[in-house]
Amino acid sequence: MGCLQSSGGKEPEELRPRDEEAEGSDEEIPRATSSGYIVPTAVDEVEVVNEEHGAHEVPVESLPAYWTNRRVHGEASGKLCQHFDQMVCVSEAGRQAIRELVRGTYRPLVTQDRPCPKEPACPKTPAGCPCVKPDGTPGLPTEYVVRRVIRVEDSEMWTRYAQKRSQIRERRAHRMPLRGLEPELFTSQVVATNPGSYDSLDTGLNEVYLWHGTHVRTGLAIAQHDFNLEFAGSGAGGMLGSGIYFAESCTKADEYATDEPGGYYEGSISVIWL
């Protein structure tokens, strides 16, 4: 998941959120998670949360190549390691890859789900109310500043996902490869240029990376406990029914991402990258 700040098109330059690291600061603002953990301020990848899962073991080679745990456990134990569940604060190199992803999936478009920031708020309008359009006041954010990136490394969850992917591939073997997505998703275009930062995708299954926008505290809860379908549609409703909604554009995900006015996360939103 990523913690972002948005920058609006009509704000004076001196009022726009700034990237502290880009200006020479080597320390970030510490963030308190919903369960009381504190995300360290170190720039390098460090463990934030660690929950062991008994004596079950997982092949190290089955883990994503860019995971910190694959490197650490591979060096320590070789072929097998015990299951783990960790949140890792991503290094500067990893954050740079996410910055490129944010820039590459940004589109200056709005829908009726982008909330009006004024009081009283405009009624929900197809294609967005005038206040949130690119030429409106305050308008659509012109960019997003990546403040922090936390990667969930849960070996059991990954194993379940990999097994499900294999089952789908076996069931649809007679139809492989599946008809590709047309046009190609924004996310796929960017991921292809950063192979070292993302796990390889099975394009024959139309496997893709997508965004999910939410509140920072909710994002941290999802990172620790997974998505909860009981809350499906509780934020912005469900046009297509109960389920978990994702987007190929960070701008679209931002429509459902909220900050915490007057609180610790004021000015910051959360987008989850899956």
From TrEMBL:
Coiled coil: none annotated. Residues 10-19 have a biased composition (Basic and acidic residues). GO terms for cellular component: nucleus. Pfam families: PARP (PF00644). It comes from the Eukaryota. Residues 143-259 form the PARP catalytic domain. One of its GO terms (molecular function) is NAD+-protein mono-ADP-ribosyltransferase activity. Residues 1-37 are annotated as: Disordered. PANTHER family: POLY [ADP-RIBOSE] POLYMERASE. This is PARP catalytic domain-containing protein. It comes from Polarella glacialis (Dinoflagellate).
